[in-house]
Amino acid sequence: MSRIGAVELRDAVLDEGSFRSWDAPPVDVPANDAYRRELADASAATGLDESVLTGEGTVFGRRIAVVACEFDFLAGSIGVAAAERITVAVERATAEGLPLVASPSSGGTRMQEGTVAFLQMVKIAAAVELHKRAHLPYLVYLRHPTTGGVFASWGSLGHVTAAEPGALIGFLGPRVYEHLYGEPFPAGVQTAENLQRHGVIDGVVPLDLLRRTLDRALKVVADAPGPPPPAPEDEPLADVPAWDSVEASRRPERPGVGYLLQHGTTERVLLSGTGEQGGAATTQLALARFGGQPAVVLGQERVGGLVGPRALREARRGMALAAGLRLPLVLLIDTAGPALSADAEQDGLAGEIARCLADLVTLDTPTVSVLLGQGSGGPALAMVPADRVLAALHGWLAPLPPEGASAIVYRDVDHAPELAAAQGIRSVDLMRNGIVDAIVPEHPDAADTPEDFTARLSATIAGELHRLRSVPGDERLARRLRRYRRIGLP
After folding, report:
1. Which residues partner with 332 through β-bridges?
2. Got the DSSP string for 6-56?
3. φ and ψ at 79, to 5 degrees?
4. Among 328, 205, 207, 208, which residue's Cα sits nearest to residue 269?
C-alpha cells in the first residue's frame, strides 16, 4: 500500500498555513562514510534533514504540537538525532501546555547506530509519560508501517490511538520474523483492523477523516465545558414493584449504553475496539459530551453478554484515562452479572472486580454512576461508588440476580419476585438507603419512549457533571469516602 508522508500528514491535520517548525539542525552523531552517504541520500530524496519533523499548528483554531515520522528517510528509523528532536518537542509541548499529536511511521531503531540508538526509546517514553502526568493530551496516529521499538515505546502510549486503514502495525517486523524462524508471520495479525478488534488500538481512521476525528477528541479532552442544559423538572415517581422493574430492565428494546451515546451525547469518539467481537465487547469506552459537559464514558453493554476479566480491565483503563486527562468519568451500569467460567476464574475475575472497585472509589476526578438497567453482582458493584449515583426508575442493584438469590435461599427460582422485594434492590429503595442520589423517571418504561428518556437522562448527567466541577478535589474525595464508609450504619 502507498505510504502517507510526514508532510502530507501534517498538512491534512493542521489548519492551512498554521504550521511552525520547531526543528533545529540535527545533533551530530558519530558516523562512518557509508552512513553519512545514506543520510545525505535520504535527505536529498525526502527534502528533510532527519526521519522526524516537529512543530506546532492549529486544528480549527486550536493550538497543538505535532511530531511525525517520515518513513522514506531511512525507513523512519530512530537514532540519536531523531530521538533528541522528538524529546525536545515533547518537552516543549509540555512546557507550553499543548496537546500533542504524534504520528509514527517507522521500522524502529536505526541499525546504523546500534545499541545507543536502541536506548533512545527510553528518553522518548520518559518525556511522553511526563507530558501525560501534566494532564496534557497525547494522541497517536499510527501510519503504515509502524513496528519495532517505536511501536513498543512512544507509539503505544497514547491516551487515544488510531491507525490508518490497512496499516502494518506490530512489534516484530514480518521480514525479521521470516529470516529468524524460516516461515512467514501469520497473515492478518499485524493489521490496524485486527488490532482494533482485539482492543490494542482505539480505531481505524482514513486520513481524510483524521482532522475531523481529532477535532472531536480535542473538543472533549482539551476544550472548556459549556453551560449545562436546563435541568428536567421534578416529578413524582411511580411506586413500581421490584419484580416489575427487573422485568422492565430485561426488555430487549430498552435503551442501553450504545443508544445513550448515539442519542444523548455529542462529540463521540469510541475507544478500544468497542462494538467489536471479543472479551471486551461487554464494555464500551468513549469520549463524549453530555449537554456541553466533557467526560470519559464507561458503559456496560448488556447485549454483549456477561462481564469477564478483560472487560473489567477495559473499565480500569477508562478510570485511568479520566484521571490522567482530568476529565469527569460517567459510568453506565447495565449487566446481568459476571462471566462464571473456568476461563474467567483463571484470568483473575475476582481480582479485576476488586481492583475496579478500589480504583473507582479513590479516583482523583469527578465521577457519576448511572444504574441504567440491570445491576447484578460484582461487575455492577465495581462501577457504583461514585460522587453521585443516578438510577433509571427501573434500574436496580443486587448481589445476584433475584433468581440466583432464590436458588440460594429456597433452592428454587420461584421465589425471585419475593426476594427482589425483600432485598431492597429497586431504585426507590436504593435512594432511601443512601446508595442512589436521584432517580430519572420513565414514562412508564424507557423501552417505550427511548428518545424522551435518553434526553432526560443526558440532561440530568450534564447537571451533575457541572455541579461536581465546582467542588475542590480533596473535598470531593473526602465526601465520597465518608459516604461509602457510612452506608448501612445507623
Report:
1. 299, 370
2. HHHHHHHHSPTT--EE-PPPPPP----HHHHHHHHHHHHHHS-SSSEEEEE
3. -110, -165
4. 205
Nearest alpha carbon to residue 143 among 56, 76, 90, 93: 76
Q: What is the DSSP letter of 350?
A: H
User: 227: burial class by Cβ within 10 Å (0-12, 13-18, 19+)?
Assistant: exposed
* CA dist., res. 416 & res. 402, Å (int): 5
| Angle at the Cα of 408 from the Cα atoms of 339 and 332, rounded to 5 degrees | 40
The pLDDT tens digits along the chain (490 residues) read 779 999 999 999 999 999 999 999 999 999 999 999 999 999 999 999 999 999 999 999 999 999 999 999 999 999 999 999 999 999 999 999 999 999 999 999 999 999 999 999 999 999 999 999 999 999 999 999 999 999 999 999 999 999 999 999 999 878 878 888 889 888 899 999 999 988 899 999 999 999 999 999 999 999 999 998 888 888 888 899 999 999 999 999 999 999 999 999 999 999 985 444 444 457 899 999 999 999 999 999 876 568 888 889 999 999 999 999 999 999 999 999 888 889 889 989 999 999 999 999 999 999 999 999 999 999 999 999 999 999 999 999 999 999 989 999 999 999 999 999 999 999 999 999 999 999 999 999 999 999 999 999 999 999 999 999 999 999 999 999 999 999 999 8
Identify the helix (H) or strand (E) that includes residue 64.
strand 62-69
The residues, any chain, with a CB within 8 Å of residue 473's CB and separated by 6 or more, are: 364
Give me the amino acid identity at 271.
Answer: L
Burial 442-452 (b: 16+ CB within 10 A, else e): beebbbeebee
Question: Strand 283-290 to strand 293-300: parallel, antiparallel, or no bridges (unpaired)?
Answer: antiparallel
pTM above 0.70, yes or no: yes
Strands across the sheet with 266-271, in order?
266-271, 283-290, 293-300, 329-335, 367-375, 388-392, 438-440
Cell of residue 486, nine digits: 457510612
Largest Cα–Cα distance in the chain?
A: 85
